[in-house]
Amino acid sequence: MGKYFWLFLILVSVLCPAALHAQQQTTISGKVTDAATGDPLPFVNVFFKGTTAGVTTDFDGKFSLRSSSNKDTVSVSYIGYITRSKKIQRGKTQVVNFQLESSAKTTDEITVTPGENPAWEVMRRVVAHKEFNDKRALSAFEYESYNKIEIDIDNISEAVRKRKVMRRITQIFDSLGRSAGEDGKPILPLFISESISNFYWRSNPEKMREEIGKSRITGVGINEAGSVQQMIGSSFQQYNFYQNWLNILGKNFVSPLADSWKFHYSLELADSMFLGEDWCYRIKVEPKRPQDLAFTGTIWITKEDYALRSADLTIGTTANLNFVEKIKIQQELERTPAGAWLPRNNRIIIDVAELTKNSAGMLAKFYTSNRNFRLHDPKPVPFYDVGIELLPDAREESEAFWQEHRHDTLTATEKNVYKMIDTIRNVPVVKSYIEIANILVIGYKRVGKVEIGPYLMSYANNSVEGNRFRLGLRTNSLFSRKWNFEGWAAYGTKDGVFKRGLFASYIFTRKPWTQLGISQTYDLDQVALLDNNVASNPLFNASTRFGDISSARPFMHLENTMWLKTQLYKGLTSTFSLKNRKFDPLYNFSYRRNPDDITSVTNADFTVSEVIGELRYSSREYFMEDAANNQISVNSSRAPVFTFRYVHGLRNLVGGDFNYDKYNFSIAHNLNLGFMGTGRYVFDAGYIPNTLPYPLLKTQLGNQNVFYNSLSYNLMNMFEFVTDRWVSLGYQQNFEGLGLNSIPGIKKLKWRLVGTGKIMYGSISRNNLNMNTVAAADGTTRPPFRMLTGKPYIEVGYGIENIFKIFRVDFLHRLTYRDTPVDAARPVGRFGIKIGAQFKL
């Protein structure tokens, strides 16, 4: 009996635990999503309540949890969200999904006990290893990238639903409407796209190229997808946290891995855990000052090589941002055989706030998946000259293709998006509102293959023309991918003169871009605006045709032009032009044919024929195309833009009256100054060595209205100074929230300081003074403009922007030439206040 007893004990000790385990084993799988957006939440803690048994969700929010405990509750928790628990059935395999709601409090207060914060040592090692872990350490890399973008309207209130434009949509919304989650609010999709591309990068010189091989776009109001297709690849979702600063929506945010992390962030070493096969430190980060442009969230740092393994970071409403309620960036990286890490998955969510209580918000979601990494095989430098290329057969609508090639499957709600958009965009009232929106944004109304506009120039009223009416037409890419035509006509009720403009161009090649064009215009112009590039600011350009323009020296201008534009290589563009211009003044104007003879014959009009060559270079600039077959500069702000322009006037060619030369060189550059904000400087220098009527010299651009204009000297009168040699420097410093973010009470207003300064040296030759002198009322002769007399013109300013999120006020001081000349038509302003309006994040 004894031996059987011991045999019985052995069987019990071996078999009973297995039996109990089999009876009590509980397996839970599921997905955790954001209740407001429906997007997956990676790196969320999932655990049996009351135990330490738990896992974290993967990048797609999925989890699988097993335990033999007798607990019947599963909980999920994550920074910035309300912890949630659900009852489960013990001893069974089951699926449990969670939707988490954002909490008002993003993080608990971080408390540092005496002694050094343990997270600091980790971060010091992260910074020390950046040069090895940063993808920029690779000589070259390339990969296949799948990109998905979705834009929705969210937070649709009852007031919005009752509006006329929403009534018909509401019916669709209620029948097809989807909810982001079981606890979420309905959202209305406007746009969804998918693309597959090949992305290439090399380090020396730093170049990138993306070939968008296939794309599919469905959107409300998307009439022409060519320009949109170029923006849906991975080039616009490149976020590298190893850089000290990340540019997001034109704003610079300090990275948690920045060299200066200790100045900007509070850290807490929260935990250590496995992410995949990597043992990682989990570190909570939050800004030391809530108003700073910095992130809140969690980063995972590998213990082996102190590399960023994953990141889940948010910029919330406390940051000094406008119109944006939240920016969320989630990133998962993969170690390469060379040691550096490349992004495997990215997810970006931008929640645009409601402008008013009775308006809706907007939600933009970007997802990128990269695979098939290839390293250290740099292509020849010319290979990267294209920048972004949309392959000819990129348009792909076949669902079978996308099911086979997309990197993951669409969710049920994403599949429903395509159906909803197709239905919504065919509603007549929606079409009407889309047309209005396009006119406001683009300035033209599309009518098939032509467009009417720009509407900003349709009407003006000034002292010469009275009421001015203008109508214009242009073709678009639906008409031709090679030919562009444009024409307009204008009429003034006071002068009774018809004006016109005719343009035509032909694109020979797109790689490299080569385009030939011809044009003729006959229109009212102003000497004070010549050669000042006011067309680059459409609002300012339109405003110059209003009011009394007599001080700006109006004249009728007939101009015939032929031009050839070509891209010589990446970043370098040349333009060669031939121009013939006739000047017919509408004010008291004359110049001496012989500058040395005071009794010389005077003329009041002239003709010039010009040969013009221009080179423009920016090392990191590339271009896209819009619907009108025009090139659009992209990303030029990362490097300075150099422009050199040479003009040669030819006498006796097509009636030309003068031989002359003009030289002009300029540099424009946006600066990222870290916590100091951003700066922009513009340097300009020119030289005209010949004797010419003053309309052909350089008129420095003044500003006599109450609106601030960054292109002009804002305390200089129109047509106050004319020069034939000059050098100028303008600088603007946007401090973002620096300074004001630390003042109690003021920081809640989210005001931002701005500083400006402009200095200009210049002179005019004695011959040009003699040619352009006129008889004054007292019988003497003097030039009709003011001269710089050896000292520079200087004005400085300081101001506040972001007042009510839109307005800007500048306080300006004129430091030199503060006296008013006796013959001046308008007093000189020593101090001025200018206002402006701008939409900035």
Percent of residues in helices comes to: 10-25%
Overall body shape: elongated
> What structural class do you assign from the helix and strand content?
mainly beta
Radius of gyration equals: 33 Å
Round the mean pLDDT to the nearest integer and report it. 82
Strand content: 35-45%
Please tell me about this protein's structure.
The chain has 841 residues and is mainly beta. The protein is built from twelve helices and 48 strands. It has an 18-stranded antiparallel beta sheet that branches. Strands 9, 10, 11, 12, 15, 16, 17, 18, 19, 20, 21 and 22 form a twelve-stranded mixed beta sheet that branches. Strands 1, 4, 7 and 8 form a four-stranded mixed beta sheet that branches. A hairpin with a 3-residue loop joins strand 46 (793-803) and strand 47. The longest helix is centred in the N-terminal third of the chain and has 23 residues, at 2-24. Residues 1-22, 106-112 and 177-183 have low confidence and may be disordered.
Structure characteristics:
44% strand; 18-stranded antiparallel β-sheet; single chain; twelve-stranded mixed β-sheet; 841 residues; mainly beta; disordered N terminus
In short:
The protein is 13% helix and 44% strand. It is mainly β and 841 residues long. Mean pLDDT is 82; it is low at 1-22, 106-112 and 177-183.
Detail the topology: elements first, then pairings.
Blueprint: H1 2-24, E1 26-34, E2 45-48, E3 54-56, E4 62-67, E5 73-77, E6 84-87, E7 93-95, E8 98-100, H2 118-128, H3 130-133, E9 140-154, H4 158-161, H5 164-176, E10 178-179, E11 186-202, E12 207-219, H6 226-229, E13 245-248, E14 251-254, H7 261-264, E15 265-275, E16 278-287, E17 296-302, E18 308-315, E19 324-335, E20 341-352, E21 361-375, E22 388-390, H8 399-405, H9 412-424, H10 428-442, E23 445-447, E24 450-452, E25 459-462, E26 466-475, E27 483-492, E28 498-510, E29 513-526, H11 538-543, E30 554-569, E31 572-585, E32 591-592, E33 602-603, E34 606-617, E35 622-625, E36 631-634, E37 641-649, E38 660-672, E39 678-687, E40 698-699, E41 722-723, E42 725-734, E43 752-763, H12 766-772, E44 774-775, E45 781-782, E46 793-803, E47 807-814, E48 831-837
Parallel strand pairs: 1-7, 1-8, 12-22
Antiparallel strand pairs: 1-4, 2-3, 2-5, 5-6, 9-11, 9-21, 10-11, 11-12, 13-14, 15-16, 16-17, 17-18, 18-19, 19-20, 20-21, 23-24, 24-26, 25-26, 26-27, 27-28, 28-29, 29-30, 30-31, 31-34, 32-33, 34-37, 35-36, 37-38, 38-39, 39-42, 40-41, 42-43, 43-46, 44-45, 46-47, 47-48
Helix pairs in contact: 5-9
